[in-house]
Amino acid sequence: MKAKVLLSLVLLCGNLAAPTARAGDAASAASPMPAACELPSYLLTSESQLPKVAEAIKAGKPLDILVIGSRSTTIPSSESSSYPARMEAILKEKLPPSEPVHVSVEIQSKKTAEETASTFVKLMEAKTPTLVIWQTGTVDAIRSIDPDEFRSAVTDGVVALQKAGADVVLMNLQYSPRTETMISAQPFLDNMRVVAQEHDIPLFDRFAIMRQWNEQGQFDLFNPSRGPELAKQVHDCLGRALAQFVIDAAHLEPAQQQN
Amino acid sequence: MTIADQVTGSTIAGTAGAKPAGTKARAAAPAITLPAIGERELRLDLFRGLALWLIFIDHLPPSLLTWFTIRNYGLSDATEIFIFISGYTAAFVYGRAMLESGVLIATARILRRVWQIYVAHVFLFTIFLAEISYVATRFENPLYTEEMGIMDFLKQPDVTIVQALLLRFRPVNMDVLPLYIVLMLALPLILWSMKWRPDVTLGLSVLLYAVTWEYDLYLSAYPNGFWAFNPFAWQLLFVFGAWCALGGARRMSGILASPVTMWISIAYLIAAFYVTLTWYVPQLSQFMPKQIEQWMYPIDKTDLDVLRFAHFLALAALTVRFLPRDWPGLKSRWLRPLILCGQHSLEIFCLGVFLAFAGHFVLAEISGGPVMHALISLSGILIMWGVAWVISWYKRVADKSGAKTKNAVGNADLAGGG
Questions:
Q1: What is the pLDDT of residues A205-254, one digit of tens each?
Q2: Which fold has domain A2-256?
Q3: Distance between alpha carbon B134 and the CA centroid of its chain, in Å?
Q4: Of B30, B98, B251, B256, whose CB has the highest number of CB atoms within 10 Å?
Q5: Least CA distance to B353: which residue of chain A?
Q6: Which helix (H) or strand (E) holds B345?
Q7: Which residues of chain B are under the pLDDT cut of 50?
Q8: Are B312 and B84 in contact (CB under 8 A)?
Q9: Which residue of B64, B137, B144 to mutate against A (max A Cβ within 10 Å)?
Q10: Cβ contact (<8 Å) for A139 and B149?
């Protein structure tokens, strides 16, 4: 346990130090103000592990990541600033240059977890990712799907992905203060946590992370502005956090990282 | 909360039909005499007032104050307190009415109350519609294009509004009143059955609860999904409250006074506290056996998980034990605001929901800092207190001037018939 805490602290420090050190040479790729991304370490770590990711990196095999998401996976009209793209860039920075990283995105907008999960068998036949990051829950919350049904749909989806031979990370809803009175997120957050616990897979708590940023004043998520700037910054930070989270859950030795 | 030796309305149990003339008419609401405020069961008012405050705070976005609400320290929350006390007071008020004026009159009075709650619900829905329409037209942050899908229902107001009137379309935070309406609708039947055999009624209620879990009974909602509070499950708390009011509490006093109950309750509360702690300090969850986790989760609020119910019972048992009915603090002016709010629960509940909407609105439109947040929470509570005070004042004045000409039927409301 102690060793693990220590490791994650080391990883975290490495991560926090990295953006500042690189700001000069990678200004175009890195966020202009990485301090905004800061998070307490418990939001970036998981008890559960990603053995297949670890194996692939150890063996120097390519790391194929598939992000299955919905409309909040992307930013309208600026694909390259969305969190999957940002995660890819950060992972490439952090992993050894010899390690090929490829991230692809499968967007199923306006689909519930059940509808999305029903496509997984076919989807996984076409692609064989090492890791699937499944972001879900928003559509179900908007349509107030029965939480029990939601849980079994997520369970089925996770099982299908694991059967196809991939590591799985679950990602929950965005924190959206404007619509808090209208969308009841809690049952969906709870049930995703339960599924993650039951299947011993890491849960990337996007909701808690974004709430943390909003509360600490790093981002003002109430902002009604129509421009894409805020969205870009938030996605950049999400991509960084997600990359960090994956590296941590795969338990990579510092030697396997570039910094 | 209520309970035991001190309970007032214990005249009905067993002696069905007999006029409670011989017993002490201590009473929150005999239709004949004006209830003196001091004789009310103040603990009920106190805890209902507390529940109303907590519900208001829980409906606001999380802030520092949220850490004072009980849902962070155990499995049950303010909703359980609210429904239980509502069952208790409703049975107390209308049970007496049923004995004194007959089933028909009591039923009519209950239905009048149901109508009031229904109108209150529709009123809140109107405010909600206004708010959501405003946000829909003003807010276009590209970060949240997906979440804006919630506005889709505005495209077909014909369907949505009819569904809302049928209680099938309920926006977030508007689930308690529909539950309450259904429970109150069932109250004549519950009371009529209690008059006959209280224990059998409670048994039937437990049976319905069990059947709900076994066969998955539910009420469907619009556009899909189910009622967030399943009335078939939550009726258990309501009927249990009624049963306590009608003498059950007194008969349980032996159990409540025993140290065994106390220690079981304490142990359970500590265990529940530990469980909730693992939600906030994830590092702790590794000390939680996996089997227990798998058996325990999910702790279902929709169907009033038995763990939640037990948590409420443990809380209630300890409260009754350590907070005697004649505790002088109940009359202190520091608790007065809470008690006042508890005495006008329907009005204050609706006000709380409205204030939560308004609070969100201010946070979104003006500023969202923690100072503003604290300010909104505090002023919300002050407004609730102020309005409760005005209502009390008005009722006092109205009762005074009307006492000679009519029976004080309004006392049912005062005693919290709802």
A1: 999 999 999 888 888 887 777 778 889 999 999 999 999 999 999 987 66
A2: Rossmann fold (3.40.50)
A3: 30
A4: B98
A5: A181
A6: helix B345-365
A7: 1-38, 407-418
A8: yes
A9: B144
A10: yes
d(CA A153, CA A119): 12
**Separation of alpha carbons A96 and A239, rounded Å:** 18
Check B172 against A184: CB less than 8 A apart. Answer: yes
Shortest distance between the Cα of A234 and any Cα of chain B, in A, equals 8
Q: What's the CA gap between B365 and A108, in Å, rounded?
A: 32
Taking the CB of residue B211, how many other CB atoms lie within 10 A of it?
13
The predicted pLDDT at position B30 comes to: 35
DSSP for B18-63, written as a single string: S-TTSS----S--SSSPPPGGGS-HHHHHHHHHHHHHHHHHHSPP-
Q: Which two tokens stand for residue A242?
A: 């997600």
Residue B226 DSSP code: B
Structure tokens at B20: 């409670």
Query: What number is the ipTM of this complex?
Result: 0.77
Asked whether the beta carbons of residue B223 and residue A143 sit closer than 8 angstroms, the reply is yes
Residues of B in contact with A214 (CB under 8 A): 368
Q: Could you state, in order of their start, the residue ranges of all structural domains in chain A?
A: 2-256
> Of B43, B114, B11, which Cα lies nearest the Cα of B323?
B43
Cβ–Cβ gap B143/A230 under 8 Å: yes
| A180 closest CB neighbour out of B61, B148, B302 | B61
pLDDT for A67-94, tens place per residue? 999 999 998 878 889 999 999 999 999 9
Q: Which of A82, A144, A175 has the most B C-beta neighbours within 10 Å, making it the best mutation to test the interface with B? A: A144
Cα(A47)–Cα(A193) distance, integer angstroms: 12
Determine the distance in angstroms separating the CA of B30 from the nearest CA of chain A, rounded to an integer. Answer: 41
- Report how far residue B283's alpha carbon sits from residue A45's, in angstroms, rounded to the nearest whole number: 10
Kindly identify which residue of chain B lies nearest to residue A48, measuring between CA atoms. Answer: B286
CB A104 within 8 A of CB A68: no
Q: Scanning the structure block, which residue is given the tokens 């130090």? A: A17
